[in-house]
Design goal:
Strand order of the largest sheet: 1-2
Mean pLDDT: 82
Number of helices: 10
Low-confidence stretches: 9-39, 298-313
Shape: globular
Largest sheet: 2 strands, antiparallel
Number of domains: 1
Number of strands: 2
């Protein structure tokens, strides 16, 4: 996951509509529309910390969260005790709960192969979402004071929510898509993978079978389109919820002058729940997509015993 920000940066440089929109916002700001921009809340694009650098404010927070999780995990499991306590107890409880939860969904065999990814993606997204709620994220940075010398709006925040950057969510979705292809080929092979998508389902004979082959080829083409769109839907779902939540908190802070510290408090609790739900949704969707492609249509247990009994008679 540490390489995901760089992958997202490459996607932004290649063909990101969000990057073009961000460039338009920056150009508008340079042209003298600071007042209109200030009313838009959180900018749609992440701001680079250096004008000609590659490190953006969201990527900076990404590395902080990743390093923090690695450090916490190493400290928690440094001196493993047979009877866990403290940080070790929390870490083992979280990992074991995730493992059992995923085993009930994808099965005990598949979870052994894929748990490393699903657990990592859930833990990282969860703590990245919650890190974006820490006071100072989005409110510390550079801006332009008004005529009275007061700084009411931060135009270039130093810190930005990780998943409020479309590059990051798209990078995680692309990483999953690459893992999904590898798992699908390992489970089915190339022929089985194509048969799983384009092959006819059910038992048919005669002319109906020929007709159904044509129908399922068309259905397979539609399935290919939906598979290609999965990274897009995964990334926009997570990005949209987190980006909207941060804009809502900023709007609540500006709603009543002088009470900007009080009004957003109930919404912070809401965003804590949203951060948990979105991490769970991302993990569950990726797990279900993997289960659908790696599951084989097997005959029931009774069918497997019928042949020996028939031969015996």
């Amino acid at each position: 996951m540490a390489g995901a920000p760089l992958l997202g940066h490459c996607a932004d440089a290649g063909a990101g509509a969000a990057g073009q929109a961000g460039a338009g916002l920056e150009a508008a700001g340079q042209a003298g529309h600071e007042g209109a921009k200030a009313e838009q809340g959180l900018p749609a694009n992440a701001v680079k910390l250096r004008e000609h650098g590659f490190l953006s404010n969201s990527m900076f927070v990404t590395w902080i969260v990743a390093i923090g999780l690695i450090f916490f995990a190493r400290r928690a499991m440094k001196n493993v005790q047979e009877v866990p306590s403290g940080a070790q107890n929390f870490w083992e409880w979280m990992v074991e709960s995730l493992y059992n939860f995923l085993a009930d969904i994808v099965g005990s065999d598949l979870v052994k192969k894929t748990f490393w990814f699903f657990a990592t993606i859930f833990i990282f997204i969860l703590f990245a979402n919650w890190a974006g709620l820490i006071p100072g994220v989005g409110t510390i940075g550079w801006g332009r004071p008004d005529a009275a010398g007061h700084l009411h709006h931060i135009e270039r925040p130093l810190l930005r929510g990780v998943n409020a950057d479309l590059n990051m969510t798209l990078a995680m979705a692309i990483i999953f898509f690459a893992c999904w292809i590898v798992w699908a080929l390992q489970a089915n092979g190339v022929g089985g993978f194509l048969l799983h998508i384009f092959g006819p389902k059910g038992d048919t004979t005669g002319a109906l079978k020929v007709l159904m082959i044509g129908v399922f080829v068309i259905v397979g083409l539609l399935e290919v389109v939906t598979i290609l769109f999965r990274p897009v839907t995964l990334s926009f779902r997570l990005y949209g919820n987190i980006f909207a939540g941060e804009n809502m908190l900023e709007a609540m802070a500006r709603l009543v002058p002088g009470l900007g510290w009080l009004i957003p408090i109930p919404f912070y609790f809401l965003e804590l729940l949203v951060g948990l739900v979105q991490a769970l949704v991302f993990m569950l969707l990726t797990a279900v997509f993997t289960l659908l492609i790696c599951t084989h249509d097997e005959e029931g247990p009774g069918h497997g015993q019928a042949a020996p009994e028939k031969a015996h008679h």
